[in-house]
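Morning!

As promised:
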Amino acid sequence: MKFKYPSRGTAPMDSNPACRRGAPATEDKRIRTPLEDAVVEDLRSGDRVLVSGVIYAARDSAHKRLVELLDRGEELPVDLKGQIIYYVGPAPARPGRVIGSAGPTTSGRMDPYTPRLIAATGLKGMIGKGYRSSEVKKALVDHKAVYFAAVGGAGALIARCIKRAEVIAYPDLGPEALHLLEVEDLPVTVINDCYGGDLYTEALARYSIKEVPELPLGKDPALS
Amino acid sequence: MTRIITCDEITRAVADLCREANYYLGKDVRGALEGALAREVSPQGKDVLNQLLENAAIAAAEEVPICQDTGVAVVFLELGQEVQVQGGYLYDAINAGVRQGYTEGYLRKSMVYPPLDGRNTGDNTPAIIHTEIVPGDKLTITVAPKGGGSENMSAAVMLAPAAGIRGVKEFVLETVKKAGPNPCPPLIVGVGIGGNFEKCALLAKKALLRPLGEPHPLEGIAALERDLLESINCLGIGPGGFGGRITALAVHVEIFARHIASLPVAVNIQCHAARHKSITL
């Protein structure tokens, strides 16, 4: 089967300051929580980043409860100003271990809650995997925040970067409880930056092959 | 002649399979990831593939799950018609094995009941069990834990027969494209063609159990698998969705006869953590 690979470097450029969006990972950037605006401003879609410090693990049900507290005007169990939420529901720890496998879950399920959390708490970052809604991307630009992806399915590898794990709220939710995690050099990639850069879109522009080879639509005994 | 298999044996076997399937990534998948690493041109894609291989090695060495989403316990039974199960009810024995395997194996419990506004059942039961009665006096058990992230990106459609092979291809590509980075590519794409509404979904799921690198025995279907794989890998999604040539490691198609009025097609998306282990008792 013959098809053409496009030449490298076809990612679209625009006047956006994120001029190296979608570029291959070069040197890792190191960041430590809590994040100041200047740190977020330095991150561009496609950057590989090592995160250290305290981050918070929360997913579906914990998000629902956090936003319900905001709706009622009550205080959250944790101050999220400048912080990062990691979308993860870890596996249980073996005895003597800090945590079980702890890779990212699909972020899109948190989209209905995220813009509200960012606006109300000063949350600066999220780690997960997969697409975000346009509302979330707008919130990142409006409030200078960033969305990272960790490698989905690399839960055992990621667990090695987690040095401390504590349930700080909602223990009844089991794997969905709100956890505090202390991480060291957790490897993530910037997907959506605070300038509107979007690695997933840029990646498709760079690597998709428009001339999809034509199928030989010969006789198929099983389908005809 | 009947052969007796006890519920205790079955429970023990299922518990072991739950642990093994979750800790040890199959040799076929590891081989496919290594092959993908050699072909991937995107640096970020290569980085993801390297992390996945390293992750599999860590999981096996430390006996921790490859992925924290240790999934719904999907259990396939091929029950010989000459087997008699003693000491209780077969499905209770399977669920006891899941309970034991997930609890003692430090695997995540992800089942919630009732489905709307329910609570975690606490032991990852109930399993989803598919039983096939086959000739003979053996019982083959396959445990295939299935994560939520990739399952959520799966889809089925009832095409008109006139849509033909082109319609099938378009639906598969559209499903993979729409899924994008969400189901943790590189993927294994299971496709069921034919049967009826529920049959095509089961075919798609069973397609995921076939070892990677093993084409469908019918040449026409094997050709469709190759073509679909090539088209999927033109999408550019790449490992992790970070861009690249390797969006899928394999496409497996299974087929069944269909009604004259329908062409059902199901696409079951599987992430690289393609877990399934079998035993024959």
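Residues 75 and 118 of chain A are 15 Å apart (CA to CA).

Hope this helps with the figure draft.
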